[in-house]
């Protein structure tokens, strides 16, 4: 009998056994392809920070050409869609209360008169604040649109008086946006979604690896064999590493070819670090399977991993805006570091030199989690 700490023959036997197990489990084969499609389509189109076409009701008490021009500025901005014109404040309130309109534009009766006499008419934009994201967009856009209309009206009036607006002093600011000039939220969300999907799939696959053995009472057969814990853990991981890497390539293809998010940086570097994250996520699933005694416990443990990853990793919400204690918790989540990696390579095109801290953190997480998994299984043998 070979009593070495690591025997390649035993290791190969575990790999072969796990491949047979995976082949007999159709879910394990379909999940890496089906889940990326479902998640990418749902999250890719639903999760967005861009808000436009805000349903708007207009209460125009002026009913002049000037007030119609003012409303037109809101319409052509694409941020507001005027679906309703009303004749009373009560009708406007009813539409906002019912949720049919998210914003209400009130134009006073003396709007045109004040403009023509050089005074500043005061319009009002009423916003439904139940959705802060939509409300902020409506508020900021409304202010900008109103200021642009006022400036354009003044310039037109000055020209009619024979005064050139160019002669008036002004301050200009040249704004340049790097990496995502169009400020498209999908370019921020989609690469991160690849990492989130990858984590969810791999954790899910391996979380049930040892649990399945326990529920089918085949774990006892493994215990009486000379197979070492490290051979068992690594042997079980190999098939899922291959499945996880295939899933990563598939999700990345959807990112590039379906959502047209190009990779600005080194593709080979992204693949290598993506495969490292696959290994790290699989280790998390394997650790869960050493603690869980049944599939229900494994599922509950997965929720405890996946939910904080979505909320605290910076996938959607900026970590800079979180309280210090909550921000610190984000550093305990491997996905946090991979999001920096994939966004850095895909959007910024940066190299490994800028990502050393994130790469080092992923390596540490992988080593520690995998070591704990081996030790946990070793304890269960005693």
Describe the structure.
The longest helix has 30 residues, at 229-258. The chain is mostly helical and 382 residues long. The relative contact order is 0.11. The protein folds into two domains: 8-48 and 184-381, no CATH class; 54-167, abc type-2 transporter like domain (abc type-2 transporter like fold), CATH 3.40.1710.10. The chain has 15 helices and four strands. It has a four-stranded mixed β-sheet, with helices on both faces. 65% of the residues lie in helices and 6% in strands. Helix 3 links the parallel strand 1 (54-60) and strand 2 (80-85).
Provide a quick synopsis of the model.
With 382 residues, the protein is mainly α. The protein has helices spanning 8-24, 26-46, 65-76, 89-97, 111-116, 132-160, 185-207, 209-215, 219-223, 229-258, 267-291, 295-312, 324-330, 334-348, 356-381, and strands at residues 54-60, 80-85, 103-107, 124-127.
Q: How many domains is the backbone divided into?
A: 2
Strand order of the largest sheet: 2-1-3-4
The whole-number mean of residue pLDDT values reads 81
SSE-based structural type: mainly alpha
Distance between the termini: 20 Å
Q: What's the helix and strand layout?
A:
Blueprint: H1 8-24, H2 26-46, E1 54-60, H3 65-76, E2 80-85, H4 89-97, E3 103-107, H5 111-116, E4 124-127, H6 132-160, H7 185-207, H8 209-215, H9 219-223, H10 229-258, H11 267-291, H12 295-312, H13 324-330, H14 334-348, H15 356-381
Parallel strand pairs: 1-2, 1-3
Antiparallel strand pairs: 3-4
Task: Looking at this protein, list some descriptive labels.
mainly alpha; 4 strands; 382 residues; abc type-2 transporter like fold; single chain
């Amino acid at each position: 009998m070979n009593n070495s700490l690591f025997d390649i023959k035993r290791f190969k036997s575990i790999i072969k056994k796990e491949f047979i197990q995976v082949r007999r489990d159709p879910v394990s084969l379909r999940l890496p392809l089906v889940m990326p499609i479902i998640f990418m389509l749902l999250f890719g189109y639903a999760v967005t920070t861009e808000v436009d076409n805000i349903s708007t009701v207009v209460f125009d008490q002026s009913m002049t050409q000037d007030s119609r021009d003012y409303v037109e500025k809101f319409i052509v901005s694409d941020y507001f869609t005027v679906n309703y014109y009303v004749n009373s404040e009560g009708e406007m309130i009813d539409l906002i209360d019912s949720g049919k309109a998210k914003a209400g534009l009130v134009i006073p009766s003396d709007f045109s008169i004040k403009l023509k006499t050089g005074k500043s008419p005061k319009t009002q934009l009423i916003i439904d604040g139940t959705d802060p994201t939509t409300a902020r967009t409506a508020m900021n856009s409304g202010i900008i649109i109103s200021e642009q209309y006022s400036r354009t009206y003044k310039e037109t009036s000055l020209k009619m008086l024979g005064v050139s607006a160019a002669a008036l002093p002004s301050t200009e600011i040249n704004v340049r946006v790097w990496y995502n000039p169009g400020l498209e939220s999908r370019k921020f969300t989609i690469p991160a979604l690849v990492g989130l999907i990858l984590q969810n799939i791999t954790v899910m696959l391996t979380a049930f690896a040892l649990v399945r053995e326990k529920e089918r009472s085949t774990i006892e057969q493994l215990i009486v064999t000379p197979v070492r814990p490290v051979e068992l853990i690594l042997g079980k991981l190999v098939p899922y590493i291959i499945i996880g890497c295939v899933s990563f390539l598939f999700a990345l293809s959807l990112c590039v070819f379906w959502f047209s998010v190009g990779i600005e940086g080194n593709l080979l570097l992204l693949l290598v670090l993506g495969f490292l994250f696959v290994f790290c996520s699989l280790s998390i699933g394997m650790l869960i399977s050493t603690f869980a005694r049944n599939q229900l416990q494994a599922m509950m443990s997965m929720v405890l991993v996946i939910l904080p990853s979505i909320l605290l990793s910076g996938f959607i919400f900026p970590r800079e805006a979180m309280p210090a204690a909550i921000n610190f918790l984000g550093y305990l989540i491997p996905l946090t570091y991979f999001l920096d990696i994939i966004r850095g390579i895909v959007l910024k095109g940066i190299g490994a030199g800028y990502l050393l801290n994130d790469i080092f953190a992923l390596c540490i997480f992988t080593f520690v989690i995998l070591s704990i998994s081996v030790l946990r299984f070793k304890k269960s043998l005693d």
